[in-house]
Design a protein that fits this description.
Layout (H helix, E strand, L loop, with lengths): L1 H20 L1 H14 L6 H24 L7 H9 L8 H25 L17 H24 L5 H19 L9 H10 L6 H25 L11
C-alpha cells in the first residue's frame, strides 16, 4: 500500500507539472516564430512546436523516472497495462492513480492561470467540445487510439534512440492536436481535461466523463489490443535438451 501511495503522489506531482508546462509550447512557438518572421500556424511554426514538445516530453520522461515511474496520462497508463507492458500496474493501482493524476491536473491548471501573462492567456484554456457529445466521444477515442498505437509502435518497433523516439511521438501528438482542433481539442489525456474542466466549472458533467474519460480510455485499450494482434510478441524459443 505504501508503494501505491508513493506512485499516486508521484503521478499527481508529474501531472501538475505537465498541465502547468504544456501551454508554454504555444507561448514559445509564438515568440520564436515572431523572432524568425514566420507565422506560428505555418509549417515552420508546427516544426518549432514539435521541437519544443520533444524537449518537454524528454524532460518529463526523465522526471518521471526520478519519481519512480510516474505518469501524467491515464490513457497511456491504461494502454501499457492492456498491452502487458506494465507488470506493476493493476486495476486497483489505476483506481488510485487516476484520481491522483486528475487532482494533479487541477493543481497545474490553477497554477498556470495565476502566472501566465495576460497577452498569452489565450493559450491557457484547455480542450473544449466543438461537436455533439457522441461525436466528441468517438473523436477523442479515435485520436487517443492513434496516439497510443503510435506510442506502442515507436517504443516496441521503432528506432532505438530515445531522442528519436520522443521526436516521433511529438510529431504524432502535434499532428493529432491539429487534426482534432475542430472536434474536442483534442486532449487525449483525461487528467489534463479534468484539470481544465475543473477551473472552468464543468468537471462534474456527463460530457466531460463521456468524451474525455470514457472515449480516451476505450481508445487506449483498443490500441493495445489491436497492436498485440498486428504485432504479436515473439514466441519464446524452446531450450534444447
Amino acid at each position: 500500500m505504501g508503494s501505491l501511495i508513493k506512485a499516486a503522489l508521484g503521478d499527481a506531482v508529474l501531472t501538475s507539472m505537465w498541465v502547468f508546462s504544456a501551454p508554454s509550447m504555444g507561448v514559445f512557438t509564438t515568440i520564436i516564430a515572431s523572432f524568425l518572421g514566420v507565422q506560428a500556424r505555418s509549417l515552420i511554426g508546427l516544426f518549432i512546436t514539435t521541437i519544443l514538445a520533444t524537449i518537454l516530453v524528454l524532460t518529463f520522461s526523465l522526471i518521471g523516472k526520478l519519481l519512480g515511474g510516474a505518469s501524467f496520462n491515464p490513457s497511456t497508463t491504461a494502454s501499457f497495462y492492456a498491452a502487458g507492458l506494465s507488470p506493476a500496474t493493476s486495476l486497483i493501482s489505476m483506481a488510485v492513480r487516476f484520481p491522483a493524476q486528475a487532482a494533479g491536473g487541477v493543481g497545474g491548471a490553477k497554477a498556470i492561470l495565476q502566472v501566465m501573462p495576460d497577452k498569452f492567456k489565450h493559450f491557457v484554456k484547455g480542450p473544449s467540445l466543438k461537436v455533439d457529445v457522441k461525436s466528441g466521444a468517438v473523436a477523442e477515442g479515435l485520436f487517443t487510439f492513434s496516439l497510443c498505437f503510435a506510442l506502442l509502435w515507436i517504443i516496441l518497433r521503432g528506432p532505438k534512440n530515445p531522442i528519436v523516439q520522443i521526436w516521433l511521438l511529438s510529431v504524432a501528438t502535434v499532428g493529432l492536436v491539429v487534426a482534432g482542433s475542430g472536434f474536442t481539442g483534442p486532449s487525449m489525456n483525461p487528467a489534463n481535461a479534468y484539470g481544465w474542466a475543473y477551473v472552468n466549472n464543468w468537471h462534474n458533467t456527463w460530457e466531460l466523463f463521456f468524451v474525455y474519460w470514457i472515449g480516451p480510455l476505450i481508445g487506449a485499450i483498443l490500441a493495445a489490443r489491436v497492436f498485440k494482434v498486428l504485432f504479436p510478441p515473439p514466441e519464446p524459443k524452446e531450450k534444447k535438451a
